[in-house]
Design a protein that fits this description.
Length: about 350
């Protein structure tokens, strides 16, 4: 995900100068905000791309920490004196936390949610970035006749080979339905019985159920599998290393990262301004050039900056690529994850 030069901004689709002045208002010198994320390279990249420059915009000092999911956020809030002001999570965890009352309301008189899809612009949390689960394959296996979508992934007669899927049901349940012939606009609400049945069909051809993004990338790079479902952000390193690998956004699944302000934060006012800057079109427009294969949650980012054809082709959320994919519904997952997770786990281990 190398940083690329940003192209000259065009003055269209921007928020008003008056609103931007509010977002730029310098916070009191004493404001120190603590943001906890999921750690690793993605947190480093998001900090450089969104979090740190947004804090600088309001004159606040930003401290970053890491967590291992919604359980850690829950502990912070239940302590009555959270050490974190803002948490970055997967959107389904934001939806779970909101249902449990873990977050402060987002002040939409400060935070401009225009351009962010309604399903990921909630009362207590808002999406910050996108990622995609995509179909990738080895070109030395399939040559000029590669699989083009999940129906081909499920067609083991026409496309024989070793496959890999994730041990996590999110995204896997969606692609199973697509592989079974469900149209993109009919995927939700998920037909879990049909999805699990489709996964049962493909299971004999699944050589590996991967447990991490690093493992999924290594499987393709080393040729241990011939095709797999993989986070698009993990493709960059594999391709950069010269492995004979390609991928497609066709029928990919777009997921979201999100931020929420922890209940009981002592810095709610400053945190609202931080969030406002993070999701602004101007800040979001940094993602396609600085975080290859990720994308902005705010669609207006593509109006705020003029991007090259290469960057638009690479970004999972560019209008052309987004139109090919299914958008995950975090609220559905927050309401169904417990039952689905158990059934999915049983399918893998049986």
């Amino acid at each position: 995900m190398g940083e690329m030069k940003m192209h000259k901004s065009v003055k269209r689709g921007l928020i008003t100068a008056a609103a931007w002045a509010v977002l730029s208002t310098t916070a009191m010198a004493a404001d120190t905000l603590t943001l906890a994320g999921l750690g690793g390279k993605v947190q480093d990249d998001l900090t450089a791309t969104l979090f740190k420059p947004s804090a600088e915009k309001i004159g606040a000092e930003l401290r970053t920490e890491s967590h291992d999911g919604i359980a850690a956020v829950r502990v912070q809030v239940q302590s009555g004196a959270p050490g974190w002001d803002v948490a970055h999570l997967g959107a389904e965890d934001c939806a779970i936390g909101a249902a449990e009352g873990l977050f402060e309301p987002i002040d939409y008189s400060i935070v401009n949610g225009d351009g962010i899809p309604e399903g990921v612009r909630a009362k207590n949390w808002i999406a910050t970035n996108t990622y995609s689960v995509v179909l990738a394959w080895r070109t030395d296996k399939y040559g000029d006749n590669p699989p083009k979508d999940w129906k081909d992934f499920w067609n083991v007669e026409k496309f024989p080979g070793r496959r890999a899927l994730s041990v996590y049901p999110q995204e896997m349940m969606e692609i199973a339905l697509l592989g079974d012939g469900v149209e993109r606009d009919k995927v939700y609400p998920l037909d879990t019985k049909r999805s699990l049945a489709a996964l049962e069909k493909i299971k004999p051809s699944v050589s590996v159920w991967w447990t991490s993004g690093a493992q999924s990338a290594q499987l393709l790079k080393d040729g241990e599998v011939d095709m797999e479902a993989i986070w698009g952000s993990r493709i960059a390193g594999v391709i950069a290393d010269g492995a004979p690998v390609k991928f497609t956004y066709q029928d990919g699944v777009i997921g979201f990262g999100c931020v929420a302000i922890l209940k009981g934060s002592k810095n709610v006012a400053a945190a609202q301004k931080l969030v406002a800057n993070i999701v602004s079109p101007e800040m979001q427009a940094r993602i396609p050039t600085m975080m290859g294969y990720y994308g902005p949650s705010n669609k207006k980012a593509f109006e705020a900056t003029q991007f090259s054809a290469d960057i638009l082709a690479q970004s999972n959320a560019s209008p052309e690529n987004a139109a090919k994919q299914v958008t995950m519904q975090p609220t559905w997952w927050s309401e169904n994850i417990q039952s689905v997770q158990e059934d999915f786990k049983n399918l893998i281990v049986q």
